[in-house]
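Reposting from the mailing list since nobody answered there.

I have sequence plus structure tokens for a pair of proteins and want to know whether others read the tokens the same way I do. The first protein:
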Amino acid sequence: DAKKDLGDQIADTNTKLNNTKDQLTTQINDTKTELNNTIGNTKTELNTKIDSTKTELENKGLNFAGNSGADVHRKLGEKLNIVGGAAASTPAAKTSGENIITRTTQDGIQIELLKDSKFDSVTTGNTTLNTNGLTIKEGPSITKDGINAGGKKITNVADGINAKDAVNKSQLDNLAAKQNATDDAAVKYDDAKT
């Protein structure tokens, strides 16, 4: 009977299709689980590697060195202060650095000397300027105790006008010439000793 045979074939085909569907669903679910596990593991590994690399880079940071003192290490993201001593709060902290100021610029850090700098002493060649005054080695000096020409000529001195002005040689020569002129015209007395 053909109808029964056709029904059996349809039932058999449905069973095979259901079995194939179940197998495919199982394979898809297994593959999905495997992919999820692989993706999860890969994500975890990548996150661990990223965190490790980030920590390594942050800790590696940068080292800075100056003319003296120990190197300074900063992790990436940490601030490094580069300052002069201009804002020093104690006398011990006030070195020549108090004359230095730093400014951040678009390109980096600019280190500048203050326009109105303060020093305890400045020496250039044989000349020293300090709180005592100006001294030239083996030469003149202008100190708080006075002016010492150091055996050198003082030149280009203007004529003194006021009572406390210095006079120059020209003024003394004129005075000597006037004195000689009056000496010749003055009355002269003989020595009374005989």
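The second protein, same order (residues first, tokens after):
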Amino acid sequence: MRSALMHRRGWIRYLQDRYEEAEADLRQAIALSESSPHSYCLLSKILIDRGNYPEAMTAWQNAERYAQPRFPEQDECLYQAWEKLKGSANSSEYWVSGHR
């Protein structure tokens, strides 16, 4: 229950462009429930926006690992985060180094 509350607060702060606070909330949500694909996926988006591509990729991979195919919103979040990762010009060195 607390994990879900932290995730929701992180989501609200993300929508308000309060990335640092949102990141802290999502990390707390993940610490409380390590298999939360929603929290990992949103954390990935935030880390992309903050320019931390290696950690964003790790968060994305965790989201993918824990995602359940029966939940379309998880698939949509993964797709959005992946497109954001791929499309980031600043992450080009990361992609050249052999990652996905």
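Reply #1 (J.P.):
I read it the same way you do. Confidence is low (pLDDT under 50) at residues 95-100.
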